[in-house]
Amino acid sequence: MSGEEEENAAELKIGEEFLKAKCLMNCEVSLILEHKYEQLQQVSEDPMNQVSQVFEKSLQYVKRFSRYKNPDAVRQVREILSRHQLTEFELCVLGNLCPETAEEAVAMVPSLKVKGQIAIVMSCGLLRYDLVLLTFFFPSSLAL
Amino acid sequence: MFCLSELEDTVRVPPDLLKLPLEVAIKKVLQKLFLDKVLSIGLCVSIYDIKSAEGGFVLPGDGAPTYKVVFIIVVFRPFVGEVIAARFKESDSNGLRLTLGFFEDIYVPAPLIPRPNRCEPDPCNRNQMRWVWIFEEQEYIIDDSYQINFRVENISYPPVPTERAEDGAIDDDGLGPVSWWEGCSERNNEDDDT
């Protein structure tokens, strides 16, 4: 990433390559790391010994801070959020923090502001509606 | 946040790993090289996938084949301005320290704690100071009862590339312990582990 322009995610100045790179929501990382851990369990009797501290603690973190656990729900969240013309970065912050109002969403992702007031209200309203729908259809995926 | 990042590297597979399937052997070498290390793109958490491995030439005087490998890793990489969920770790008169578990060097300096506030000795822990936010005559203690959302203000890289520290702010809308914000009560973290 070039050091010329100061990085600031609030204004979406985070380097071209990161805007295009695959950003992951915590719930997606949870599925990835759990799958890796299960693979290890199949080949080793003591998988805990095989994984690094960082892996173990990262898995704990994403499991705790994931709103959605069910793989289908996780896929749906990304699909629904992708309908709203967000960058990968904005999509993941929203998917991670799950704001419930437009005001919360803008506080968490200030770059939404520049997309126009109507667009924010629309997208956040839809977001909430879609996420509420999602919760309705996948109740077992709610983090407790 | 977590990201997938594609890298290319030249990987030497030591002879003792050659009895394993090639992909497994290369993964083991990559894990040793990259896992838990802080690269310019972030903290490497896991090898996600190997896209390709070419070569396998043995250089003169070496018993091990070398491959040109294209692979994808999962990294954790904070961005300035990003809002991240964390847990409280400790506090003193300089400010707060927050943790993600796998990363513990998140500091919220006193000026970035919501005002008005006060700092007082922690009645439960003689060695610590605790911070209390005063809002509309209500007092809110900053402790480990709830998840704390913070915004990344600054990322500093120490001269020796082993650790990285972040400065955070919790003095803005939507930041701080989630219990402070209306409608957030269902997101309380009441688990007993760290």
From TrEMBL, chain A:
One of its GO terms (biological process) is DNA-templated transcription initiation. The keyword Nucleus applies. Keywords: Nucleus. Its main location: nucleus. InterPro entries: HRDC-like_sf, RNA_pol_Rpb4/RPC9_core, Rpb4-like, Rpb4/RPC9, Rpb4/RPC9_sf. Residues 16-130 form the RNA polymerase Rpb4/RPC9 core domain. It is found in: Nucleus. Belongs to the eukaryotic RPB4 RNA polymerase subunit family. This is RNA polymerase Rpb4/RPC9 core domain-containing protein. It comes from Brassica carinata (Ethiopian mustard).
Automatic annotation (TrEMBL), chain B:
Keywords: DNA-directed RNA polymerase, Nucleus, Transcription. Residues 161-194 are annotated as: Disordered. It is found in: Nucleus. GO terms for biological process: transcription initiation at RNA polymerase III promoter. Residues 82-162 form the RNA polymerase III subunit Rpc25 domain. Its main location: nucleus. One of its GO terms (cellular component) is RNA polymerase III complex. It holds the Pfam family SHS2_Rpb7-N. InterPro entries: NA-bd_OB-fold, RNA_pol_III_Rbc25, RNA_pol_Rpb7-like_N_sf, Rpb7-like, Rpb7-like_N. Residues 8-63 form the RNA polymerase Rpb7-like N-terminal domain. DNA-dependent RNA polymerase which catalyzes the transcription of DNA into RNA using the four ribonucleoside triphosphates as substrates. Belongs to the eukaryotic RPB7/RPC8 RNA polymerase subunit family. This is DNA-directed RNA polymerase subunit. It comes from Brassica carinata.
